[in-house]
Amino acid sequence: MGDSLKRLLQRLIRRIPTQMLKLTLEKWGRLTKAQQQSMDFTQPKWVLTERLLGICEENEWTVKHITELEMIYVMDNPNQGMWNAFQLIDPEDDFQSVELMKFKEQFKYHLGELVKHVSVKMKKHTDEAVWIRIAWGDSFSRPNHLKPTYVVHQLQAPYVYVTSLTLKQKPLLSQALILATRYQALKDANLSGRNLTAIRDLLMRQYQQVFPTRYPSPLAEKNETVSNTHIEREQAMFAANRHRMSCEAFGDGTLPQLQSVVYKLETKFRDHTNKTMSEREEPFRCVVKFASTNILESLRHCASSGIVSTPVTPLLSSIPLKGKNYFVITDNGPGPSSQKRQPQS
Amino acid sequence: MAAKLNASESLDCSDSSSSNDQSVSNRSSNRVAEKERRKNEAEDPFVLALKYFSDVEAGTPHQGNDDFENNLALVEKVAYSRGLPPEAISIMLEFAMSLRMGTSPVVRVLKCLIPASVVPQDAIVRAVVWLGISKITAGTQVLFIKWVLTIFDMIDAKDQLRAVYGFIFSFVTDENLCPFICHLLYLLTRKESVRVFRVRKLLDLQSKLGRQPFLLHLLSLYKVFCPELVTLSIPSRMRSGFRNHNSPWKSTLIIVQKRNGSQLASIVNPAVTLKDKTSSRKRKHWHLEIPALSSAVNKGAQTEPSRRKVVPLVQIQSFAQLLENMHRVELPAQMGSLLGSSLALQYLDCVQDESALLRLNFWLGYALHEEFLFCSDGGASQNSEEALQLLDKLLSAHHFLQEGFSSSEAFLYKFLNVWDGSLLRPQILGLLSNIPVVPSSQIGQLLFEPLMQLFFTSSPFFKCGLMESLNNMLRKWLTWHSVYALEDDLDISLNSHTSINMTLSGFKDSVMELVHFVGRLATIGLQLEGCHSLLFNFILDFYETVCDMFLKYGLPLIVMPPTGVFYPALFATDPVSVDRLAYIMYRYKVNLTSAKSQEKLTEQAFHISRQTFREFNNYLVFMVNCLWNSKMIHLGTDIQLGEELLLKSNVPQYWASFDLIHHPAFMNYAVDFHRRCWPGRKDMDINSIKHSKPWGWYLEYLFTQGYDGLKLFIQSNISRQLPAGDGQGDKLSTDER
Amino acid sequence: MSLLKPFSKLPTLNTASILLVESEEQFQQSLADALLEETAVTMNVRLAKSLPLPKENEESRPRIDLVVFIINLTSELSFQSAEASLKHLDSGYFLGKVCFLVINARNASVPIERLDAVRRLAASLHCPLLFAEDQTPDGVTNAAERLLTILKVAAGRVPMATALYLSNLTRCTVPPDIDQPSFD
């Protein structure tokens, strides 16, 4: 058994929490009944790893098998890395969505053309999404299975979600995808987060939508918990108003989980007293990043509790509306950024 | 399989043989076990494995080396299941640190070094030496120091480690090791290890690395030992500097300790089970779980106590032993563990060297600060069992030592400023009553301001609690005074350890401040709470202490209660308050009389102001007139009510409404007495009790109801030749001069 | 700009009214519930995010006996909001009918300067400054109890005591600097 294979298995087992190990192995189904029964999952992790290494040798597993196990684990637990969304644009004239087998074949073929040493593995998930695991190598080195890239693509939708992709690999992947799906270009959707479903929901509009209107929507009679007639909220009206406005911006259902929003400001520096700065050719750059475990929820709370002034600035409300969490604001962009205040979540 | 069984058996034997009993009956069985062990040793695979590691030649490859694999697996198995005996630790550590098989097995070996009982310090010293000369990777070096920190309390002695303090110190310059080395040094530092060049080196590092918490902590410890060497100002709010490093071993260590501990269940303190929930952040609390561990240390060292020069405090089990080993006691790494053991406290009490107390104070200051004052979670876990136990332990230590620690005092001054009055109330009030005498110039700002605000905004029960605590505080101050006051010069050292000296007049000022402060609290508190009778009780408790300051504690100071306490007590509706007031007035009289006679005797002893006498006499005359003579005579003093106004109130015979018969507190006794005295009479006329004979009986009757204060008061102040006569018959010896 | 005045309305019989001002509107609800446990008097609790209060409620609003500013020390905004709200109180309130209630004072993330600033503010207005533990039920009950103690005096329910008298005893003083007691 090769050293690299051993290391791969060891690393993988280390990543999988003990309580999930049993289920994942069962799903994988490469262990014989007897082997499965011989595993005692109450033992410490290092014992289990030793045992699996033994079995690995016995069953003569190869890298293929181990990557299979890895894919099963990653597909079950997609919220581990940072997912970036990309959009496929400009379908070819005679476009129709590609059928799975063809896509597989095409993708592998095209990527193989572009890179010499690459190992691609594909699996179809229950929700019609294709999961692609790519271990990259280059013309001189064999594919590195320790740092694979995962790509998720739903054949019917023009979106691709990618995790751990380096800049160098991006054009290669983009090229292969375009050719395999018969679109003309792949563009960054400016949306990223740790929660894959959230990103997908946001792009596919699979959550409660709000439509900006100029008229206050008739609020559903909320049974305000009037706990006691002796407690009176002086500013209940304002609070209700703020709540309504925040709901207009973000909806009142559950919001997809995003971890951060980044605004990049590129503008001309305006200050008469400071010539050196205002006469620069280069635009003045400034980045504002809001981070939270659930940034949309936080922003909604900020708006309804009055930390952010209402009506909510389009800069914030356009996150769910446009499905983006990376904005570049230029001089003729929407609204001045000074309207925002730091949310405290 | 058989071999395996043997292995475990032999280990069992070695465990039990060294475990606890030294009784004669066990010795013979030990000897049998010894023989058996020798016999087994030859084929014991564990012993063979160890032999392999001690004999293996340098440069042997480990990859594909099945011998190595098998032997290491065997050692790991033993280690993870029951821990390694001391010799095994020595062998494995030596094997790993000397890099005989290269760097790759080192981590694996270090991770399995779970001690079953103790870790021999020679092994550590040797390993530290290896650290200096062999080419161990940085990560592994850190792992090794982490391991030492984790098992620090299990090292059987630290003298040799301290001997190489300088050598260990030299690793401070290593950027990776620095935080961990600082922690280790922190645990090893004694007063003599603090040197100018080391301080300079640390300051040097600090200027290079910035104000790192680990450097600050070590420096602040240096400052505790030698304040003259470290002029740096240490911020009062330091983040916890040393993190918990025991993660790779913690869980296994606990399992192994538990397993071994269950065999020694008889010794193990049952309290241990309470504290199983170690959250990772609490290394400082970890010491509180040490009892199980320390008993394990015991057995290893008891077999050969003469070899080591120092005796860890945990090994001392009786006071006699403590006396014997006084000069060579080794303090534990976690000073907080001292709080739990009465022997340790006894040691603290009698040892001359201040470093122990300094270290304890230092530890305590940070622990209290981080746990209660400024905690990271803002108080969610504040009522946790752990915190409560720490405070309770601290209180019982205070109680045991009969004095507080200066760090808990400083903590309290800060805490009172952010206290809500309910969080950990019993403990905080307990700490408050242990505060040593505060100079009168600072007492107002440190104590009175926060307390006053809390007192007046809180419930009557808080008020009672605070009164009780202030009473205890006063009593402790007075006791200190009576114990430590030197007769020739009037200096008193307030605290046996800290060198605060205070003149007698300074002390008197502080006491006076305190008494006046309580007088103010009491007056207004009674007014706001409508003379709450429970509160009254606590206030009168306080004055019972105050009135006896001269006779009971020998403090030449007499302070009268304010009118706001005296009159409400006299007119109280419950007889108990009146009775207690009578007792207090009686004690005042005894104190004043004896003070006066002493003054006459020794001319310049001390001087009680005329004002005090006048106040007392006014109170006394008013009280006697009121209770006894049915007169409301105001001698132009405190209360002035116009005659016309009283007449306007249309109360018939208003002057008699507070005598012993008509006093609201005693009225029902009078009625009851009347009924018993004249059972036949239909119409009640309680005024008839005033006649000479029934009056005497009535008094007797009152005294039998348990009103001893009243009894003493009347007996000492009223001569009863003229029953119901004029109050001037009770002329006092203490009258105004 | 409408000022809230202490004596613009007549008091109601056997009633005490308290106004809790908190910009975060978190703690005030639980505090209000705890305050209503009091049964000896009819309690009216009014909650506000900040002052001034809306004009529309002027009619229904009872005479406010005590205004409490709740300041969360971990948030600068909370302090600023309270500071801004103070301007909308009639000066009559500062004769004993205002108090500050600080929460999260023991949190490690609180800059020490902020606590000093709050202290200075309370001291300059001669108002009491209370601390509360909002995380535990005991802490909430205790805070409510202490507010009631002040409120009862402010509402004239304690004979022989007035709000000004009590606030003279409990008012905050200039921040003491007791990092190290200087005598040791």
Structure, described:
The complex is a heterotrimer of chains A (345), B (737) and C (184). Chain A is of the alpha+beta class. Chain A has 3 domains: 3-76, no CATH class; 83-202, S-adenosylmethionine decarboxylase (4-Layer Sandwich); 235-339, Ubiquitin-like (UB roll), CATH 3.10.20. Helix content of chain A is 39%, strand content 20%. Chain A has helices at 3-15, 18-28, 33-38, 45-59, 63-76, 100-114, 170-181, 196-204, 236-250, 275-278, 295-304, 314-322; strands at residues 83-91, 118-124, 129-136, 149-154, 159-163, 183-193, 231-233, 260-267, 284-291, 326-329. In chain A, strands 2-3-4-5-1-6 form a 6-stranded antiparallel β-sheet, sandwiched between helices. A 3-stranded mixed β-sheet of chain A has the order 9-8-10, with no helix packed on it. Chain B is mainly α. Helices cover 60% and strands 1% of the residues of chain B. Chain B is built from 34 helices and 4 strands. In chain B, the strands form 2 sheets. Chain B has a two-stranded parallel ribbon. Chain B has a two-stranded antiparallel sheet with strand order 3-4. In chain B, β1, α17 and β2 form a beta-alpha-beta unit. In chain B, α11 runs parallel beside α13, α20 (385-401) runs parallel beside α22 (425-433) and α24 (460-484) runs antiparallel to α25. The radius of gyration of chain B is 36 Å and the shape is elongated. With 184 residues, chain C is α/β, with parallel strands linked by helices. Chain C has a single domain (15-170), classed as 3-Layer(aba) Sandwich (Rossmann fold). Chain C is built from 5 helices and 5 strands, in the order βαββαβαβαα. In chain C, strands 2-1-3-4-5 form a 5-stranded parallel β-sheet, sandwiched between helices. In chain C, α1 links the parallel β1 (15-21) and β2 (42-48). In chain C, α1 (27-35) crosses α4 (137-154) and α4 crosses α5. The termini of chain C are far apart. Mean pLDDT of chain C is 86; it is low at 178-184. Chains B and C meet through α21, α23 and α25 of B and β5, α4 and α5 of C. β7 of chain A pairs parallel with β2 (42-48) of chain C, so a sheet runs across the interface.
